[in-house]
Automatic annotation (TrEMBL):
GO molecular function: beta-glucosidase activity; lyase activity; oxidoreductase activity
Active site, UniProt feature: 375
Reaction equation(s) it catalyzes: Hydrolysis of terminal, non-reducing beta-D-glucosyl residues with release of beta-D-glucose
Signal peptide, first to last residue: none
Organism: Streptomyces litchfieldiae
Family designation: Belongs to the glycosyl hydrolase 1 family.
Keywords: Carbohydrate metabolism, Cellulose degradation, Glycosidase, Hydrolase, Lyase, Oxidoreductase, Polysaccharide degradation
Organism superkingdom: Bacteria
Enzyme Commission identifier(s): 3.2.1.21
Name of the protein: Beta-glucosidase
Listed PROSITE patterns: GLYCOSYL_HYDROL_F1_1 (PS00572), GLYCOSYL_HYDROL_F1_2 (PS00653)
Length: 470
């Protein structure tokens, strides 16, 4: 139909890129920063690929001006980054470290000078180790400490940063951190997954309240979730039930209390043998249910679930990393299947239709809430050629497909306001260390030299013109 026409995006659509503190900053021991759970985890042998750590990462802490220059060169209009809690409040408690706040102030100012909108995420997984030592997210106190931290950062940066998110992907923090253990802090305790989820939700609610108390009225406060796009393997009732269970754990455990003010009944029933949920106190769900200005959604790949098939070893390839411990509390026997699509270097199926579904779902659920795609992108084995150029046609195809999906959703009436490509730079890809490259800018991890890939040029063109080429 419109195949030869460029796809034109709304004029005020926000074109950005995203990173996270632990994945790019390095400078792990500088200016008063203390270890987070990711420092501890990555320094523990066997936890991260090749023993990689974020000690140096992209050295963004020292090279941030160069990185802002790159963004400006690429014509990006927005930059989503996270604040390292233990850089700002080393023990997770008490007074702030001025030098930590100064770094983020200078970064925000540098962005604003180049016309780039800063978007802050307060928590992208790097809990101060001291708070983990006191029990971590399964402890209610961690949520209270988070509110204090949100207050500190909001007060320090509220005059220059207008877009705020409390958490990034609480699913990963709770289910991979305390369930499968493939992420920091690497625990595997069924009930802790549920407690951590609740306290992350509570941290979000208390954090929104804290931010509202210090931010100017026009600030936009939201959260970033990575809801599962869960599909049943077949149309059988058993497979549809498996998909429902995974959807409850992956998505609704966060989105229901945040957006609607209560935990799903089916979730409580599915997990009844793990927990009586007595950690939810009267009034908590109301606290979690704060009015939001936008919802951030991260999307990479769909999930296909089925009831146990009895076909030999039930490989738990759910796309969330391999562990002998299932994160799917109460539904450990659900099996996962890979779609018949091409895969990225993460082994994730490339399927932009999942993004259309995801956007439609939340548009239906919360029609008045603006949506942002706060992460989307792909890892590929990019290689530099003899001339020093990096050609990444697979990434361009991935981005083109997913931006096309967003355009389609917008045409269908979904209020999508912007896109933050993951990621600006190749960086520390959590349990995979530096072995997976998501950047549109190549980073040589020996010299730390940055080289824009062909996808960076392509994305600059798209962002500059506000349209996808025909
Ligand atoms: C997200 N999983 O992480 C994060 O927000 C980013 O920090 C990360 O680099 C990016 O996606 C790419 O992975 C995820 O195993 C990490 O399901 C792992 C999973 C999901 C998201």
């Amino acid at each position: 139909m419109t195949e030869n026409q460029p796809l034109v995006f709304p004029p005020d659509f926000l074109w950005g890129s995203a990173t996270a503190a632990y994945q790019i900053e390095g400078a792990a021991r500088e200016d008063g920063r203390t270890p987070s759970i990711w420092d501890t985890f990555s320094r523990t042998p066997g936890k991260v690929h090749a023993g990689d750590t974020g000690d140096v990462a992209c050295d963004h802490y020292h090279r941030w001006q160069e990185d802002i220059g790159l963004m400006a060169e690429l014509g990006l209009r927005a930059y989503r980054f996270s604040v390292s809690w233990s850089r700002v409040q080393p023990t997770g408690r008490g007074p702030a470290v001025q030098r930590g706040l100064d770094f983020y102030r200078a970064l925000a100012d540098g962005l604003l000078e180049r016309g780039i909108t800063p978007a802050i995420t307060l928590y992208h997984w790097d809990l101060p180790q001291d708070l983990e030592d006191a029990g971590g997210w399964p402890e209610r106190e961690t949520a209270e400490r988070f509110a204090e931290y949100a207050h500190i950062v909001g007060e320090a940066l509220g005059d220059r940063v207008s877009m705020w998110a409390t958490l990034n992907e609480p699913f990963c923090s709770a289910f991979l951190g305390y369930g499968s253990g493939v992420h920091a802090p690497g625990r595997h305790e069924s009930e802790s997954v549920l407690k951590a989820s609740h306290h992350l939700n509570l941290a979000h609610g208390l954090g929104v309240q804290a931010l509202r108390s210090v931010l100017p009225r026009n600030a936009e406060v939201g959260v970033t979730l990575n809801p599962g796009v869960v599909r049943p393997h077949t149309d059988s009732e058993a497979d549809r039930d498996a998909a429902r269970r995974i959807d409850a754990l992956h998505t609704r455990i966060f989105s229901d209390p945040m957006l609607h003010g209560s935990y799903p009944d089916d979730l409580r029933q599915d997990t009844a043998r793990v927990s009586d949920w007595s950690f939810v106190r009267a009034g908590d769900e109301a606290t979690i249910h704060q009015p939001l200005d936008y919802l951030g959604l991260n999307y990479y790949t769909p999930t296909i679930a089925s009831a146990p098939t009895g076909d030999g070893p039930a490989a738990r390839n759910d796309g969330h990393g391999i562990s002998e411990h299932s994160p799917w509390v109460g539904s450990e026997n659900v099996e996962f299947h890979l779609a018949n699509n091409d895969l990225t270097d993460m082994g994730w199926a490339i399927d932009p239709t999942g993004l259309v579904e995801l956007l439609q779902r939340f548009h239906r659920e919360v029609p008045q809430l603006p949506l942002f795609v706060t992460e989307n992108g792909a890892a590929f084995e990019d290689k530099m050629d003899a001339s020093g150029a990096v050609h990444d046609p697979d990434r361009i195809a991935y981005l083109n497909g997913h931006l096309g999906a967003i355009h389609q959703a917008i045409e269908q009436g979904v209020d999508v306001r912007g896109y933050f490509l993951w990621s600006l730079l190749d960086n520390f890809e959590w349990a995979y260390g530096y072995s997976k490259r998501f950047g549109v800018v190549h980073v040589d991890f020996d010299t730390l030299q940055r080289t824009p890939k062909s996808s960076a040029r392509w994305y600059a063109e798209v962002a500059g013109s506000g349209q996808l080429p025909a």
